[in-house]
Design brief:
With 300 residues, the chain is of the alpha+beta class. The chain has a twelve-stranded mixed β-sheet with strand order 1-2-3-4-5-12-6-11-10-9-8-7, sandwiched between helices. The longest helix has 15 residues, at 87-101. It is 30% helix and 34% strand. Helix 7 (244-258) packs across helix 8. A hairpin with a 2-residue loop joins strand 2 and strand 3 (53-62).
Length: 300
């Protein structure tokens, strides 16, 4: 018998994380991510049980890149030995129901490029590929980076007085990302909650200043115990082509290494050639790709 139930307490969070580790031991989901998600009012976390044993997880929420758009973001994972028994479909149905309650008309999902089971399921469901992202990583123990500073630019650690300027830059930078779906920054409060709260590492995040005005920013967040993650690097349109993104990432690499981090991780859309070139220049190495998919809600 298949049972789908919501994540409701600490024990459920532990179960959710344990199942995700079983599904993908090479890329474990940090517990703090689940805790943070469960605090969001639009988020629904699910555990699937087969004959009383937890074998799958699911989640549904507003798509973070465009909270007011048509998409709800879903994540469905089932351990290999329980697949093709209706568990994924049951999770999909409950996620689709939650999407309807959020007023959404389509689903956004993702899977690794080598996850044939997930890609096959979503293809059967009528999902289509709408984009891809490279997952790359830098080993800080061997990284060789020298700080380069464009003329007239100062690199500084993010402070409260920089936040409004960062937001103004984000309105341009996020809108210009060649992503699978258009990125909408939202209000200042929505952008700040997404970018500078929770697992963000403010002491490893920097702004680029020109005559005291923010013209670029780069935010690092915690991925797991040894890996920090580039959440966003953005440069104002008027300041692009001067090496500001490179300088911001160089500052982050040096600061992360000094702080004792082992790796830096980031993901970039395949169409974002400028940022991919920056990462290649800095020594980031490709690990795999994430396939972004868009498709219909599941009808009962």
């Amino acid at each position: 018998m298949i049972t789908i139930r919501p994540v409701e307490n600490d024990a459920d969070i532990d179960t959710f994380v344990e199942v995700r580790v079983r599904v993908n031991p090479a890329n474990p989901l940090p517990r703090e991510v689940v805790v943070e998600d469960e605090q969001k009012p639009d988020h629904l976390g699910l555990i699937a049980e087969l004959d009383g044993v937890a074998v799958g997880t699911g989640s549904a929420a507003k798509f973070g890149g465009a909270p007011d758009g048509e998409y709800a973001a879903i994540n469905i994972r089932v351990v290999e030995e329980a697949r093709r028994r209706g568990v994924g479909t049951a999770l999909d149905l409950r996620c689709s129901q939650h999407a309807r309650e959020l007023g959404k008309t389509r689903l956004f999902a993702f899977a690794r490029h080598d996850d044939e089971a997930s890609l096959g399921y979503f293809a059967f469901r009528g999902f289509e590929e709408i984009g891809r992202m490279q997952d790359v990583r830098l080993d800080l123990s061997v990284a060789v980076v020298e700080q380069s500073l464009p003329d007239g630019i100062e690199i500084a650690v993010v402070r409260a007085e920089h936040e409004r300027g960062m937001y103004e830059t984000a309105l341009e930078a996020e809108a210009d990302i060649p992503a699978a779906t258009s990125i909408r920054s939202g209000t200042f409060e929505q952008w700040r909650e997404k970018t500078l709260s929770g697992r963000s590492l403010r002491d490893l995040s920097f702004v680029a200043l020109e005559h005291g005005r923010v013209v670029g920013y780069a935010v690092l967040g915690r991925h797991n115990d040894d890996t920090a993650e580039h959440w966003m690097t953005g440069v104002a349109r008027s300041a692009r082509g001067r090496g500001i993104a490179l300088a911001l990432k160089q500052a982050q690499i040096a600061a992360a290494r000094d702080a004792g981090w082992t790796f830096l991780r980031t993901m970039n859309d395949l169409g974002n050639a400028p940022m991919r070139r920056v990462n290649e220049k800095l020594g980031y190495e490709r690990r795999f790709e994430w396939v972004h998919l868009g498709g219909p809600l599941l009808k009962r």
